[in-house]
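Request: Could I get any protein with tokenized structure?
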Amino acid sequence: MTTPIIRQLTPSLLQDWLNFFDRDAFADNREWSGCYCRFYHADHARKDWDTRTPDENRAASSVLINAGHLRGYLAYVEGCPVGWCQAAPRLSVPNLQNDEALAVSDAGEVGSIVCFIVAQGFRQQGVATRLLAAACEGFRKEGLRTVEAYPRRAPAGDAGNYHGPMAMYLNAGFKVHRETEDVSIVRRALANVAR
């Protein structure tokens, strides 16, 4: 495989992001194809997640991307997106703090790695690892002190590893910070933070 090129998501890349989600991201997991990385941004108190349509999530995520609120990185091979990592300052991902099990007191200093999607045929080739490295470097440049992620404690297959596999985080220097019933909260300090 050609080494993927990693690009930070900007409004100018919205169509690439949408094309990836529309066609490739969930080609082998249609059940989740309507998420459009909206779950951690949706107001679940206002409307039950299971009643939201794929078109509604697609449109809402497009608005968030254009406003700079849904952030992350795309991996490209030969000009086409093959992977995605939702990565943003923790305070810009509302449902992380809204979830009592995930809420933290230092949220303003933390960058969160929320999820990964790598297209079938590009998995197990280092795409997610490159996306993770780009996200960590982006957080460091923003002046955040810590990067945090939420790998599942007992993932079921590739789909269950959408938060990223624990082994990838441990290999990247993350340590278990604490655990909930479902996830391990892993953290790594960001070196050379300039404030």
About this structure: The first helix runs from residue 14 to 24. DSSP finds six helices and seven strands in the chain.
